Amino acid sequence: MMKERLIQQFQELFKGEGEIRSYFAPGRVNLIGEHTDYNGGHVFPCALTLGTYGIVRSREDRKLRFYSANFEKLGVIETSLDELVPDPKANWTNYPKGVMWAFEKRGYKLTHGLDILIYGNIPNGSGLSSSASLEVLTGVILKDTFGFDVSMVDIALIGQDSENNFNGCNCGIMDQFASAMGKKDHAIFLDTNTLHYEYAPVVLKDAKIVITNSKVKHSLVDSAYNDRRTECETALKELQTVIDIKSLGELTEEEYEAHKDVVKDAVRQKRAKHAVYENQRAVRAVEALKNQDVELFGKLMNASHESLRYDYEVSCEEIDILVDLAQAMPGVVGSRITGGGFGGCTVSIVKNDAVDQFISEIGKTYQEKVGHEAEFYVVDIGDGAGII
Ligand code: GLA
User: Fold this and answer.
1) How does DSSP classify residue 41?
2) What's the CA gap between 31 and 45, in Å, rounded?
3) Half-sphere exposure of 211 toward its Cβ, with a 13 Å CA cutoff?
4) Spacing, Cα 20 to ligand 1 middle (Å)
5) Which of 58, 72, 98, 179, CA to CA, is 20 to 30 A from 189?
6) DSSP result, 315-384
């Protein structure tokens, strides 16, 4: 098993004695409600069984020694609790260090150092939240090691804080929340405005969720992401001159249409339209799932993609190829881009008896059109982060 293998690797690498503890935090796939989490809207993600493992032992001094089995060439990266500042040379360790920094900022005292071995099986840069899983993993490690009284929701918020203010991506709460709060076979219907949430069983009867990884990640992802946020914030300010709202997520489609002319720029209007309509779609999709109307859920997924492609403009050629192929295939209930965008993955609902064909045909055509392979994962929905 993975855990035993990693513990053995830990012992060979760090040597020495003392209790070793093991943790896991999952990645996530969002089913619908994209780019709504920083607009006070709803999201509907679920935790994967793919994620990040951490094998940890306490130290007596204040040193931090990190090793990632995914980046073997980087070797052991050594730092200390007195050096919790972002540093490009610190590479991936900026994520756990950011979480340590965010705990200390809240007054939690990290009283001794740690040796940490990490291994993740989420493909990096695939938009399945490998970084959020590393942040949440670190939160769980610190809670357990130092006995901190923090809830899993707090751990998600601390992870987001570290990503925003230590690692410079202005992300919303969805990814960390899904990793911390996931529940096997359920998706989380989260109102990002209030953090009120509800678990919805994902019962697709005769269908499966399939993730397709385009294996492209276009540059400037973080800056384009931050630009979208700014555009929505500006549109909100313009709308606030005529209606009393705190976020775009409070608007119905009709209210938006009635007031959209105060948004003085055509691009900003499209962005705000997406935020409003996508939020309403997420609400409707969850309702459809509760009513076991998987067909309607799929239609809403398709509409979500169209909006992300043309109004929010966070898709790209490779992803559109995957979605177009999927939507045209018999047995596909719905398909859309998932996550932040500009590459990464699509999520599709595919009838059981069409899954093999989905993988082989789309795989072949994608390879011909794009020049490299796509990867496919048939999703198992797992639990949130914890000790293993
Ligand atoms: C990224 C961010 C999330 C969310 C999605 C888009 O994954 O980290 O907070 O905004 O993009 O829905």
Assistant:
1) -
2) 6
3) 28
4) 33
5) 98
6) --HHHHHHHHHHHTSTTEEEEEEESS-SEEEEEEEEEGGGHHHIIIIIHHHHHHHHSS--EEEE--B---
| Tally of helices (H runs) and strands (E runs) in the chain | 12, 13
Catalytic residue flag (residue 175) = yes
Q: What angle do CA 225, 227, 232 make, to 5 degrees?
A: 100
Cβ proximity of 120 and 130 under 8 Å? yes
Q: For 291-344, how does the pLDDT look when each residue is reduced to its tens digit (9 = 90+)?
A: 999 999 999 999 999 999 999 999 999 999 999 999 999 999 999 999 999 999
Contact (Cβ atoms closer than 8 angstroms) between residue 381 and residue 186 = yes
Rg of the Cα atoms in the chain: 21
Residue 46, beta-bridge partner list: 29
d(CA 231, CA 82): 38
Question: Beta partners for 349?
Answer: 209, 334
**Closest atom, ligand 1, to C-alpha of 173:** 9
Ligand 1 centroid–CA 131 distance in Å is 12
Tokens 């093999």 sit on residue: 356
Chain centroid, CA 305 distance in Å: 17
Distance 27 CA to ligand 1 centre (A): 12
Written as six digits, the tokens of 54 are 């951490």
Residue reference for tokens 């935020």: 275
Q: Does the pTM exceed 0.85?
A: yes
